């Protein structure tokens, strides 16, 4: 085998490896994309309607944002909700009334 034939053989094997790697990369990319789409569609959505009468829930950060929404949902389903927040004034805001009387 001449040096040229050896070079062409190595070059050809390298091309096959790069094609295999690019196909593998494409498959992994598709899988990651599907997982991310699934997470976006299902992330943070609680569809449970289970009653929580007689249960106590402790919610940290329940005066705003996601914590507030969680506290509202738990109260709507009948749980006794305790909100833990770092500032007493935050706990006495009008938002707390929304939790006590969810609509």
TrEMBL record:
Keywords noted in UniProt: Oxidoreductase
Xref: Gene3D superfamilies: NAD(P)-binding Rossmann-like Domain (3.40.50.720)
UniProt xrefs under Pfam families: adh_short
InterPro entries associated with the record: NAD(P)-bd_dom_sf, SDR_fam
UniProt entry tagged with the keyword Oxidoreductase: yes
GO MF: oxidoreductase activity
Identification of the protein by name: (diamondback moth) hypothetical protein
